[in-house]
Write a structure and sequence with these properties.
Elements lengths: L1 H16 L3 H4 L14 H9 L1 H14 L6 E2 H6 L1 H4 L5 H7 L4 E7 L6 E7 L1 H16 L1 H14 L4 E3 H6 L1 H4 L5 H5 L7 E4 L8 E4 L10 H13 L19 H12 L17 H17 L4 E3 H5 L2 H4 L7 H5 L4 E4 L6 E4 L3 E2 L2 E2 L6 H53 L1
Antiparallel strand pairs: 1-3, 2-3, 4-6, 5-6, 7-9, 8-9, 10-11
Length: 405
């Protein structure tokens, strides 16, 4: 009862001195924004569906001993790979990825069909390696930034391995990259043998600048005017916010920008300032990702490291002018709006060159397959025409023989 009385007195005192107090203390959790489908951003996810599917199948084969696998083994993994067609149908659809040959699984068993990377796929893998080498500095910076934003400057190895594809880390980054930079990274424990962590060894001030801060600095250089760092807010066409939400967003944007690399241990978890910092972290994480979008369950793995609130996914709908939460494919995916124009990425990560090369390989295989089918159709057409001509000649011959009789 005493607590309620003190709270009421506090409320009345602030109401007398500040008429806007009721609006200022409105809890964030009470601010609701209706989710609305964005077909263009959903299309961006759909466009990459086949690329990601093929990548999963290729990685499945490459992870096998000797990089070979019996076709029947791969067939049994279709559900895990989210393949809706049989492996043979997949191979026909995407020729050029694998070579097939017959061998025995065990010395005395019958021969079965095996798959191994084709020469073209091996050429692509070499190009991929070169792209990683060319962008090693970028990869190191990304890894440092992930650690620098975390609460204790340390992240579980399991979690980093889980997100390596989202941020463009090579498969062997723990073995071949991390040991090369002892000034930045310290590996605690042994990966694969119990708990292990990657710890930040030194703080690089150049890495401690977010995309938003760098953008403000660049704009200031061009205009000669000091620019205040803040978020780009652009609601999609036909999307409107209720008055109370517009007012809250306006006031929230007026708050000072809080860097995702700053110390926020003193900020209350439910404060508007902490909300601004959380949005800043999500903005930076999505900016660092390859496709400027990350599945929400993957972001959720870093709740502790980045001090996300329990209901953190509501941030993406509450700030619909900054983010879009796609439900495409039955998976919630957080998308950074400013990185896209319609369904096309305008803010392209240099590591996307790997995807471009892989798509070229897939397209080349499809063209070859189309040419093969064209040749087969032409041969079949010729065979049908030759058969019809032979039949016609036979009929004429028989007709001539009948007349002579």
């Amino acid at each position: 009862m005493l607590f309620k009385t003190k709270a009421l007195l506090f409320y009345l005192q602030n109401l007398r001195t500040n008429p806007n107090f009721t609006r200022q203390i409105r809890p964030i959790s009470s601010l609701k924004v209706v989710w609305r489908k964005d077909q263009k951003l959903d299309q961006a996810i759909e466009d990459d569906k086949q690329y990601k599917l093929c990548s999963r199948v290729v990685k499945e084969v490459l992870n096998e001993p000797g990089q070979v696998i019996p076709l029947l083994y791969l067939e049994k993994r279709r559900e895990r790979l989210r393949l809706i067609v049989r492996i043979k149908a997949f191979l026909n659809r995407y020729p050029g990825l694998f070579d097939s040959y017959y061998d025995r699984i065990k010395p005395k068993t019958n021969q079965v069909l095996f798959l191994r990377p084709s020469e073209k796929l091996r050429d692509f893998l070499e190009e991929e390696r070169k792209i990683y080498v060319q962008n090693e500095g970028l990869i190191v910076a990304k890894l440092c930034k992930l650690l620098m934003m975390s609460k204790d400057k340390v992240i579980s190895i399991d979690k980093l391995v889980h997100v390596k594809r989202e941020f463009g880390f090579p498969n062997d980054f723990l073995v071949n990259l991390v040991p090369k930079y002892p000034n930045y990274f310290k590996l605690v424990g042994c990966p694969g043998e119990g708990k292990s962590f990657l710890e930040l060894e030194s703080w690089n001030p150049e890495f401690a600048k977010s995309v938003i801060q760098l953008r403000a600095e660049e704009e200031a250089k061009v205009t000669g005017i000091r620019v205040r760092p803040n978020f780009n807010v652009k609601l999609p066409s036909g999307f409107y916010l209720r008055k109370e939400m517009r007012e809250w967003t306006r006031d929230w944007l007026e708050l000072d920008y809080i860097s995702p690399y700053g110390d926020v241990s003193s900020l209350p978890q439910s404060s508007r300032e902490m909300e601004k910092r959380t949005v800043g972290v999500f903005h930076e994480l999505l900016s660092l990702s390859i496709f400027k979008r990350v599945p929400v369950p993957i972001l959720g793995k870093f709740n502790d490291e980045y001090r996300f609130p329990n209901a953190f996914s509501t941030v993406f709908t509450r700030h619909s002018g900054i983010f879009y939460m796609s439900l495409k494919g039955g998976i919630k995916t957080a998308v950074l709006r400013e990185a896209y124009k319609d369904s096309e990425l305008i803010d392209r990560d240099p590591l996307l060159e790997i995807k471009d090369k892989f798509v070229e390989l897939l397209e080349e295989g499809r063209q070859e397959r189309a040419e093969q089918l064209k040749v087969q159709r032409e041969e079949l057409k010729k065979e049908i025409e030759m058969t019809a001509l032979r039949n016609e000649e036979e009929e004429l011959y028989e007709h001539g023989c009948n007349e002579q009789m």
